[in-house]
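Support case: flavin mononucleotide complex. Customer-provided input:
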Amino acid sequence: MDGSVIADKAVRSFDQHKLKLGLFGLNCSGGLSATLVPERWQGTWQENLAIAQMADEAGLDFLLPLGRWKGYGGETDHNGGSLETLTWACGILAATKHIMAFGTVHVPLFNPIVAAKQMVTADQIGGGRFGLNIVCGWNLGEFNMAGVELNAHEARYEQGQEWVDIVTKAWTSDEPFDYAGDHYSVKGALMKPKPVSGDRPLVVSAGNSDRGREFAARNSDMMFTGIRVDQEEISDDIAPLKAQAKSYGREIGIFTNCYVVCRPTRKEAEEYHDYYALEMADHGAVDNLIAGRSARGRFDELPEAMLRNLKQRAGGGNGAYPIVGDADDVANLLIKLNAAGIDAFAMGMANYLEHFPFFRDEVLPRLEAAGVR
Ligand SMILES: Cc1cc2nc3c(=O)[nH]c(=O)nc-3n(C[C@H](O)[C@H](O)[C@H](O)COP(=O)(O)O)c2cc1C
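Agent response - structure generated as follows:
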């Protein structure tokens, strides 16, 4: 192999639609839903394959896995079964035609040269359809499984910077290179083949903190971040990130995590949302999700309505943004968020195979009619 595969930029479906859509979390048991309902997502390979092919045929833009090594406990051990994301992406890319598949890669767990080689392999399999989601990590229990310590927040991002520099160099340098950093020492590295695009695959990085945003502005094509403000404030919230990227001579897009409950009527959607994400929530897993994610604590002191929302979002979508309603509600909210500056939506559904067909048949045509897809 000499790395000279012709790049087919058309397969980079990311450039095709103003409003980009994908499915998120399908590689893990439970997906984004910590729930006890019998139809909860199992996340087997056969299910992943089936939904990947269905999403590909429907024209979705991407599939994004959760980077997960250990479950959240509770009755279902939510996310306790997971398919490793780079090997998952290889399988998905081999079995699909147009859709992008991401790897969600924990910086401290993957040597950058090994990861660069694995990712280029995925990219070759997919003819340029691989994307990288960088996560610098947060979950000590997962890191301890691999005998890796969780560095302090700042050090995690410093290591992340070295990691990206090495991976990018491996993907682009035609000459052997050395790299001497605080975290990595690389000698005489030369990688062939190169990514199909001839450049680097699409790079997304996930985080919410200011430091995470700075990292994204410097390195990523898109920042993967939660919607943390009211709809009206989204444009103002992302403006500094866009300006920061510009100051580094770059453009950056916005990618967010959400979950969709779409039913023929708004009432049915709200009832199912309450049913699977509250009444039938895996309460143990929900508590662990909330406690593990945040050092803010003291949730019991929150007003009851806020606590209910927080728990419903954790049960319904691992804390993602809820998009609940009939097909008009769902399409209109997506369009509104897109107009406010969210470019891409990584969606959870309680059961992707059961719930995506309604979204495909009812919401996608509305988005097309609105001219955003
Ligand atoms: C939208 C989003 C998706 C994320 N997905 C994952 C994931 O799949 N696996 C993981 O270990 N961490 C994930 N993270 C957490 C990041 O690894 C990161 O540790 C966390 O956001 C803390 O970084 P920050 O302080 O810069 O926000 C995600 C974060 C965000 C905001």
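Residues 128 and 196 are 5 Å apart (CA to CA).

Case will auto-close in a few days if no follow-up is received.
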